[in-house]
Amino acid sequence: MYFKNSICSLVLLVASSLPAAAEKFTCGSDQGFSPYALPDAATLGFDHLKYAPLDREGVRDYGVFASRFDGPDDDGDGILDMRAGPVWVSYELKGLADPGGDLSFKEPDISINRPGDWYKSTGYDFLWTQNPAVTKRRIDNSYDGIGSIWNRGHLMMADHAQRVSWEASCNTHIYWNAVPQAAAMNQGPWLHIESYVAALSNRYGAVWTIAGPIYDPDTPILAIGDEGEIPVSIPHALFKVIVMEGPDGVPLVRAFRFDQPAELGANGKPRPTATAAAGWVKCNQVKKKQHVYDHKSRLVALSDLMQKTGLTFPDALVTAAAADPEATSSLWSVDTRYWSGAVCGGQKYVP
């Protein structure tokens, strides 16, 4: 009896020491639209536009992020470009409460079941009204069946929005917040740098992230989407600008370019051409391949990024970036305890 009681006590002790399963929520739908009305950014205490590009025509406030969608002819050359994605997404991410001592930061103990179809939105009906070849008005159609190759790549990470609420996380699943990203990049180096952003916010209190596509005017643009579907342009690269503020309020800037080369495969459909040699290793393959994410090679001058995208950033940001001799050569280090959540590949540092 003593042995049996001891075993029972041991089982209870072990069970009580195991982490509780995250509370799971399912993203609902209101005839394809999000049923969750969030307060605006100011009400939530965010200033998403503080360091956002000054090209703000048609910008929308989604509470946890701000976005500008690509228009029918954004470059004004008289030729319809219709990329079917955002020009940029900007958001302020506030850090988690410090648990104190040497304890590690913990993300909210919740998770979501993503909506099967991403949420519909107003504001881009020109994608079919100005293109008679389009007979299917779901952008989802263009992504269907290619998830192992091209992802609906978030520009604001859903887990970052989860710090506000699970409903906010659901609301990141909208095409004002996504462009086609190669699966190996999206689930690898891009995800790791999102983990890095979360760690920075915990360490310094707040971080601003601005991300978007880069299209090379001298390189043909490939698109996903079959006949009758909305053609969604595949960016030649993606950019991410990370901004913090020093004790004096002066911004600190790091700008990154994630190249995304692609070509038409034998089936006539676009496929990524980068490999693990380019750092495209998925998080779940890091230990097996003994890979280390090193983002220094992706650092670029903010001025170069502006030239490539045609975007104009606030003067304070441009000045700060130009004055920092390490802006294109090093990342800010962050102690292990600030890396919260399921860090990509378990790599809680940056070389």
Work out the number of β strands: 15
What is the topology, as strand order, of the major beta sheet?
A: 2-3-4-8-11-12-15
Q: For the report, how would you describe the main beta sheet?
A: 7 strands, antiparallel
CATH class, named Alpha Beta
Order of helices and strands: HEHEEEEHHEHHEHHEEEEEEEHEHH
Low-pLDDT windows of residues: 1-19
Look at the structure and give the mean pLDDT: 92
Helix percent band: 10-25%
Measured between the Cα atoms of the first and last residue, the distance is 56 Å
* Gyration radius, in Å: 21 Å
How many domain modules?
A: 1
- Indicate the CATH architecture: 3-Layer(aba) Sandwich
Question: Looking at this structure, what is the CATH superfamily?
Answer: Extracellular Endonuclease, subunit A
Domain DNA/RNA non-specific endonuclease/pyrophosphatase/phosphodiesterase: 61-320
Binding site for Mg(2+): 186
Signal peptide: 1-20
Active site: 154 (proton acceptor)
Tell me what the structure shows.
The chain is of the alpha+beta class and 351 residues long. The chain has a single domain, classed as Extracellular Endonuclease, Chain A, CATH 3.40.570. Helices cover 23% and strands 21% of the residues. The chain is built from eleven helices and 15 strands. The strands form five sheets. The protein has a seven-stranded antiparallel sheet with strand order 2-3-4-8-11-12-15. A two-stranded parallel sheet has the order 1-5. A hairpin with a 5-residue loop joins strand 11 and strand 12. Keywords: Endonuclease, Hydrolase, Metal-binding, Nuclease, Signal. Residues 61-320 form the DNA/RNA non-specific endonuclease/pyrophosphatase/phosphodiesterase domain. Residues 1-20 form the signal peptide. GO terms for molecular function: endonuclease activity; hydrolase activity; metal ion binding; nucleic acid binding.
